[in-house]
Write a structure and sequence with these properties.
By secondary structure, this protein is of the alpha+beta class. It has a single domain, classed as Gcn5-related N-acetyltransferase (GNAT) (Aminopeptidase). Helix content is about 20%, strand content about 30%. The chain has helices at about 10-25, 30-35, 95-105, 120, and strands at about 1-5, 45-50, 55-70, 75-85, 115, 135, 145-150, 160-165. Strands 1, 2, 3, 4, 5, 6, 7 and 8 form an eight-stranded mixed β-sheet that branches. Strand 2 and strand 3 form a beta hairpin. The structure holds coenzyme A. Coenzyme A binds near residues 80, 83 and 95. Coenzyme A (COA) binds near residues 92 and 93.
């Protein structure tokens, strides 16, 4: 039986190993990682999937900011990575993690939620690339995969997505 639990600090080493398995060790060079450099994971919105004592899935959320042309900044949430153990794929675990996290975000009336991922999967949870076409990140990004969920009224058409602490100056691969 799979149980969805809030992320706890002790889960991190196992999550890192799951992420290395699913994304490869070069994952840390991706643009998404530059957005969460030096950020602390948002424990209220981050969850793990457990099968007994074994961690078989994880979803983490991070604080980020959107900066408009005039320099105004507003908070946003970066969702991801989402990963499920290869042996447990197709059993609804990622969907359960998504539903749990999004329910917690909605209950907290969170800022808009951004992620870099496949629209055919994340679209079913209300994510869309419509508002993000002209947003820049601290590294290359495929804009078809830059997906937003939440009210778009008042969001700038042109903007920069940045780490909550500002972006470190180094190169990155496409997320
Ligand atoms: C993507 C991933 C998280 C899905 O986990 P999962 O537990 O197998 O997903 P679920 O069982 O909840 O959902 C499966 C459904 O999503 C669909 N799906 C899964 N990955 C998809 C993708 N990349 N694009 C489109 N649809 C996808 C499946 O076809 C299936 O559809 P169905 O419900 O209509 O049959 C998992 O395959 C994984 O960890 N992959 C490697 C890491 C990764 O790519 N993470 C996502 C980017 S952040």
């Amino acid at each position: 039986m799979i149980t969805i639990l809030p992320l706890a600090p002790g889960h991190q080493p196992v999550i890192d190993s799951l992420l290395d398995d699913r994304f490869g060790p070069a994952r840390r060079n991706r643009t998404a990682y530059r957005l969460r450099d030096r950020a602390e994971v948002l424990g209220d919105f981050s969850f793990v999937a457990m099968e007994g004592d074994t961690l078989v899935g994880s979803l983490q959320c991070w604080p980020i900011r959107l900066k408009s042309v005039g320099g105004a900044r507003q908070p946003m949430i970066l969702l991801g990575p989402v990963a499920v153990a290869a042996a447990r794929e197709g059993q609804g675990i990622a969907s359960a993690l998504m539903r749990t996290s999004l329910a917690a975000l909605d209950a907290a009336d969170s800022p808009p939620v951004l992620l870099i991922g496949d629209a055919p999967f994340y679209g079913r949870f209300g994510f869309s690339a419509a508002a993000t076409r002209h947003w820049e990140l601290p590294g290359p990004v495929d804009h078809d995969r830059l997906l937003l969920r939440g009210p778009t009224t008042g969001l700038p058409r042109i903007a920069w997505v940045e780490a909550a602490s500002g972006n470190p100056p180094r190169t990155a691969k496409v997320a």
